Amino acid sequence: MYFLLNDIILDIEPARMMQPLDAERFSALSIDYIAQLGKEMFAEDSHAHRRNPERARRLCYLIHLKMPRVNAAQFFATMPNGPIESIDASFKSLNEMAMALMYQQQMAGQLDAAKVDYEVWHRMAA
Questions:
Q1: Separation CA 89–CA 72 (nearest Å)
Q2: pTM to 2 decimals?
Q3: Residues of the chain with pLDDT under 70
Q4: CA-CA distance, 91 to 30, in Å (whole number)?
């Protein structure tokens, strides 16, 4: 299954995960807590999804497990180099065919942040 995180498409099939998810521990997590994990990740590094794709995949997988219809998330800073409170999160459900098309574009080197911002998040790339 594909998941859009900011401006890249990740494959979040559970079989590709390095560590299995402990169902009992996971059930105790709220979506607010998972969103906070994402905010912390992007407060540390605005390119975390590119520099640590395994960590990004796990975040996407957690989001999807808590909100099964969601297959896209965006974490963005409202001020440059701001505190964690300056990181906002938004979630979307995108058409699976559109996700597959974007993944193909990404594999061909034709998907960039500006295109994703315009087509999905409806904002201009910074």
A1: 11
A2: 0.86
A3: 15-24, 123-126
A4: 15
30-39, long-range: CB < 8 A, 24+ apart: 30/66, 31/63, 31/66, 31/67, 34/59, 34/62, 34/63, 34/66, 35/63, 35/89, 37/62, 38/63, 38/73, 38/75, 38/87, 38/89, 39/75, 39/84, 39/87, 39/89
- What is the rounded CA–CA span in Å between residue 39 and residue 124? 20
Q: How far apart are CA 104 and CA 63, in angstroms?
A: 23
Residue ranges covered by each domain of the chain: 2-93
